[in-house]
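can u pls check wat happens w/ LPXRUNBV
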Amino acid sequence: MAAFRIRVDHENLKFSSAHFVLFGNGKCETLHGHNYRAWVELEGSLQPSDYVLDFLVVKPLMKQVCERLDHKVMLPTENEDLRIDPGDSVVGVIYGNKQYSFPAEDVLLLPIHNTSAELLARYICGVLREEIKSQFGGGGVTAIKVGVQESFGQEASYEEIF
Ligand SMILES: Nc1nc2c(c(=O)[nH]1)N=C([C@H](O)[C@H](O)COP(=O)(O)OP(=O)(O)OP(=O)(O)O)CN2
């Protein structure tokens, strides 16, 4: 089967954020940060413009998502073992015998089960999918794939049919 695929992967598509992966049974990583990078690939048919979708519209969408994640402590709200108390000025978090409190403005609550690169990729993919659908009606896009790199040589990607 023949298909066109575009890829947007720029050095400014990055976010520097803190997280800790939860392993269950009260075990988790220590809080730490990564200089994440993200990229997206879109597969689809050519439009009258001879584009699948203009790079110049995909790039700012990706940039927006990265900016939302940048300089935040990312916390997963879909993990039943992580207790989050989202106050107006302080977010309290309890996991096993660990307790954290963060300034609310530094926290980003994400509707995911864990802040692994895999689930961050799926989250970003979902945000982009909805933006592309609402702004361009999908265009000719048939599949979307997002990659999230934690550090050089370590990345996860997620792909879904549009
Ligand atoms: N499949 C996945 N494996 C791991 C993930 C992930 O998201 N998906 N995440 C981690 C951790 O976040 C961990 O911090 C990364 O591990 P590590 O490479 O040890 O950490 P550094 O970036 O600090 O790299 P150094 O080589 O230690 O400097 C683990 N696995």
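The first helix runs from residue 55 to 69.
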